[in-house]
Amino acid sequence: MQVAQLIAAHAVAEVLAGHNLTVSMPKALRKVKSATPQQQAAAQDYSYLTLRFYAEAAAYLRALTPKPVTDERVHALLLVALSQLLHSRDDDFTVVNQAVEAAGKSGQRWAKGLVNAVLRNFLRQRESLQASIAQREEVQFNYPQWWIDTLKQQFPQHWQTILEVGNSHPPMTLRVNLRKTDVPAYLQLLQAAGIEAHHLAGAAIQLQQPMPVHQLPNFDAGWVSVQDAGAQWAAPLLDLQPGQRVLDACSAPGGKTCHVLETCEVDLLSLDVETARLQRVHENLQRLGLQARVAVGNASQSEWFDGQLFDRILADVPCSASGIVRRHVDMKWLRRPQDLETFARTQQEILSNLWQMLAKGGKLLYVTCSIFQQENEMQIQQFLTTHADAARLPVTFDATLLPCQQWTGGQLLPTAEHDGLFYALLQKH
Fold first, then answer.
1. Whole-angstrom Cα distance, residue 367 to residue 364?
2. 136 partner at 20 to 30 Å CA-CA among 227, 252, 320, 362?
3. In terms of domains, do 15 and 111 share one?
4. 17-46 per-position pLDDT tens digit
């Protein structure tokens, strides 16, 4: 536990300094090279736990320390330990003792005494502190206040549920490759392997517990892919027909690209701005036995475009990731209100640029993994006012095909079964 706490503290400190957890965690692991696979996994769990409930742990820490803890690593270590004491099943005194030992490795002579005093004071004062700390909404829901206020205003009936789902553990959902097997047959394989799972709808199967993908039956042979049930709506909504020319404009890591190809025989271009991320697209195509043209290109620009118009365009645009925050817990604390304006400008540029590449009568599916209307409904409304040749088609979610909770205009709210995504289907006159 001590080593895991230390690694988690390094990662959390990096996130609080403004760095993404996907970058911070590998960096933290490199600092503690002797960590076993079990310790690395525990460190990841502690990091997620701390960032999921950061506002609460930070409020207790402020109440317990008259002066701010200036050393970033010691500050983060205290947050990690407090989060464990608040939300894990670990033994309280083991958490404290291991955190004190970890503090001894920080290089600060005073750290062990401070960590010991703060954590033992927390155990003594927890109940008396809780009443005053829990009054603040930030602490109650573990989100920045601006995030809470935005959801209150945009989803007055659902904001609290959205926040609670965002603090839950995300499901691990599979998409069965219907070119190679079917859902009943794959469920039997899972059962034979002792893996608990149930059919959601369509080709979606949800596992009882997440697990390494290579332990899934025939995963390496391309029988299934990991894809959220909400994201599995993209391919059917595109209304694909054999032989069509299709663009997946922001494609990495390739989940939707592969689903499109599993669904229909089309001529597909898989485009992404990041060369490194396209490697994942190549790997997924190879594993599933699918073929597509893969190219590096910025969807908001036209240098990569060969002049041949597309019949279908999937524009899964960059966004705040507010609909998948339970998978990316650091986003709650890295995002700022002004980021929504920045994303909206980028989305507008991509949408306007891709529209020129769509054939007359063709369809463009606009997708985000966001629940903020600035990136979703407001974005589409603005686009429609400036593009007279665009018509919005109805987006109908059929719960018999895939589990969903619908919101006006194609907004899927996050639930236990799926993430929060937005879909808008546009047709060119």
1. 10
2. 320
3. yes
4. 999 999 999 888 888 878 898 999 999 999
CA gap 239, 363 in Å, rounded? 8
Instruction: Report the distance separating Cα 334 and Cα 71, nearest Å.
Output: 20
Which of 219, 170, 226, 157 has the alpha carbon at shortest distance from 193? 219
404 is catalytic: no
Question: Angle CA(26)–CA(29)–CA(32) in degrees, nearest 5?
Answer: 160
Alpha helices in 17-53 (DSSP H): 21-31, 37-52
Model pTM greater than 0.85? yes
Q: Report which secondary-structure segment, H or E, holds 288.
A: helix 275-288
Q: Are 100 and 115 in contact (CB under 8 A)?
A: yes
Q: How many domains does the chain have?
A: 3
N-to-C CA span, the chain:
61
Same domain (yes/no): 212, 243: no
Helices (H), 142-233: 145-154, 159-166, 183-192
CATH number at residue 354: 3.40.50.150
Same domain, 121 and 251: no
CATH of the domain at 23: 1.10.940.10
Q: Is residue 424 part of a domain?
A: yes
186 and 75, same structural domain?
no
Range of the domain at 418: 231-428
The CATH number linked to 206 is 3.30.70.1170
Rounded distance between C-alpha atoms, residue 187 and residue 175, angstroms? 12
303 vs 326: CA distance, rounded Å: 36
Catalytic residue among 250, 264, 369, 404: 369
Note the pLDDT tens digit of each residue in 263-275. 999 999 999 999 9
- 161: in domain: no
The residues, ordered by sequence, that sit 6+ positions from 208 with a Cβ below 8 Å of its Cβ are: 195, 196, 197, 198
Instruction: Name the residue among 411, 415, 305 with its Cα closest to residue 366.
Output: 411
